[in-house]
Each structure stands twice: as C-alpha cells, then as structure tokens.
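Quick one - first record:
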Amino acid sequence: MRLYDISRPLLTSPVYPGDPSPRLDPIQRMDVGDDCNLTALFTCLHTGTHADAPLHFLADGQGIASLPLEPYVGRCAVLSVRRDITGQDVDESIVPGCRRLLIRGEGKAFLTPSAAFALGALGVQLVGTDADSIAPPDDEAAVHQELLQNGVMILENLDLNKVPDGEYFLFAPPVLVGEVDGAPVRAILVDWED
C-alpha cells in the first residue's frame, strides 16, 4: 500500500485574492515558563486544501456539518488535463460509474458550466482540483451552483504533483467545523500496490 498526501500546507498555501492570510497566535509557550504550548489558528475556511459546502454558493445550501461523508471517501480517478474542461470532454473522457474525479491541471484547468452539468448528470459525487477554485473567475458562481445543487461535492487546492494518473482510494473528509460554508481537509490517496 502506498499513501499520497495530496494536501497543501494551510499556512503557506497561496491565498485566494481578497481572502485573509492565515496566522498562528501563540497563547502559551513553554519557552517563557508556561506549562504547555498552546496556539490559536486564524484562517479563512477556503485556504489550503479544503471542501466547499453547498452553503458557500447556495443561500439555502447545507453547511459542512450536515454533509454525508460518503462523497469524500472511496474509489476515485486522477486525470491530467491541459485546458478548461467542457461537457463534451466529460462525455468523451469520464468512464461511466466514476463517482470521484480529481483533476490535475497544474492550477490552470477549470470546469466550464457545461462540464459541471455533465458531471452532475453522470452521478459524480465529488470533483476535486489542484487549482484554488474549480472554475475560472467569470464562471465561478455558475459552476459551483451547478455542481452543489446536484449533490457534487467539491475539493479545491489539492496537491497532485507526485500522483500518476489512475485509480486510487480517496480519504478526504472535511473537518467538522459546524454549519459553515467550507472546511479544511487532509486529503490522502491510497494506492493498493501488488
């Protein structure tokens, strides 16, 4: 069995334009005489590797705490692409029965609205990307809404650099923060070697 950690470090990942930078605030420090080290974390819920909840783009959408875990755990496919993905690309390239798809586009390949529609129609449960968003800025709301209203969960800012294309087992449940719009994720791929 081989494990791939496909998470990006929370404190050093690029921050989405307009989001606050993460920081650690020491509360107690043993080097100044405290009994233990204790640190507070300040971050946007969409920094680093994270899951988007429907509440992120749907006013009446579910928050992270209400989401089922099944979309975040199970067999998945990693696929390299070099341009934005259309509905026709999904129809021609995604194997029927694929429930989880992780896209490696070196941060430059996004889903178009037609691709989001096609993924929902295929019954995909989760789509992930190595980009900081699943969609380009001009289509961000439309793509997120199409996916989330059709039950397709979203992982963003994955690190797929060292993972060959292929099939894996994904384990990437979001942190149980509460009924909020997103949450950090520690995403891991399992490759069952012979």
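second record:
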Amino acid sequence: MLKEAAMPAEGMRIGTAEMVLWTGSVVMLLILALCALFWSVDKRLLNEASLWAKPMKFAISLAIHMATLALIVAVMSDGARAGGLIAATAAACALASLGEITYIVVQAARGQASHFNMATPFTRGMYTAMAVGAVILTVAAAIIGLVAATDRQAEIAPALRHAIALGLIGGTILTLVTAFTIGGRLSPHVPAEPAGGARMALTGWSLRVGDIRVSHFLATHMMQVVPLAGLAAARLLPGGAGVAAVWLVAAAWSALVLVAYQQALAGRPLFG
C-alpha cells in the first residue's frame, strides 16, 4: 500500500539498506519470541515486574522502528536507496539496535537492571553506551526521513512526502528530548514512585506519579502515526487538502506529546 501511494511498482527492488533493516526487524521478532519463552518459565521479578518485560517491550519497539525505516527507504528513488548515506544509516541503526537488545537481554538473564544501573563501573559504562546507541538508532530515522523528503526523483505524493518529513524528523526531536530527560534524571518518575505503586497493565506506566515514559512512547510512535496519516491523506484527499491534513495531524500529535511531557514533569500521572 505504501509503495502504491508513493511510486510505481515496476522496477522495485529490495536494496541493501532495506535488506539490513528488514533483517534487523525479523531478528528483533525472534528475540521477542525467545524472551516470551523465558517469561513463561522464569518467574523472577525486578521492580515488581517480570525480568523479561523490558526485553520484550524493547524487541517489539525496535522491530517496528526498523520495519518503518525499511518501508520508507523502499519509496525512495533507486539513486537515493543505493547511496552510501542510506546504507551506512541502515547498518548503524541495525547494529545499535542489536547492541541495545543484547545488553538488555543479558542483564535480564542475570536478574539485573539494564537501565539506570550505576552499581559498578561496567554497568555505568554500559548505560552510557546504551545512550549512544539510542541516539544512533533514533537519529537514523531523521536521516532517512530527510533523504526521502528531499528525494525529488522519488514519485511520492505530496501529503506522504510531508508526512515522512514531519513524522520522522519531528519524532526524532521529541524522542531525544523525552529520552534525555529520563536519562538525566536516572528515572522516568516524577517524583520517585512509592513501593507498590499502581501501574498500567502492559506498559507498566505509573498511575501514582508522573511518568515521562508516556510522552517518550508518544514521541517515538509519531514516526509511524504521521506517515500513516500521510498515506491515508494521499489516497483520500486532493493534494493541498492532504498536505494540510498531514500538518494538522503532526501538530496535534506533537501537542499531545508535549502535554504528556509537561504533565509528567509536574508529577501528575497519566490519569491523574
């Protein structure tokens, strides 16, 4: 569907960058399945949650992230897709993702936290390395979004072109802001979460105090929501109206991220 709205199907070939990103996404799904198996037999807890909850959530998120980038690379012109910048960006994203998930899984197996773990020089160093890796895989989205948006040889509908730029570049900026806030505080909670605090099912977000992970989640998935809105607008609306609709969706989603961010910093829970 994405390809149909962006460019003709004739001559479409899977390039190296796409293959790297699709392979990375599939690897994350395999890791997800492995962690789900561990979760079914290993009942150990960390911070009142299964040790395997975090690896599973990260595996899903990274799989979606790389699949999104692969789909967007697919709509570029052959020249852009074959360029060194896109190939290097895809490789860096896949390697950073693999490094992140490997450490998270290893720490889960050891019964230790991967994030905010400052217990030893090793865990402090790895926390810094994970921050670098997170920046790499996030900025990769902005690079791919910028190249796709400025690739004039690609036959991409205006609404989708705007959506790719707004979703990936805007999502990158907001993701980095929320992520660095969490990292700098060494906690997503404002103030510190009391022991036994109520949490949302599946996500684990606090229902007692402010949780910056809510805005971080929304920021990260702006990279999917806005391009999907652009795809729909390109199919359903005339050119100018489609572009306007995309900008409206991007602005509304950005506002939602910022409201959730400010609410968390004010110490108010999601449904507080």
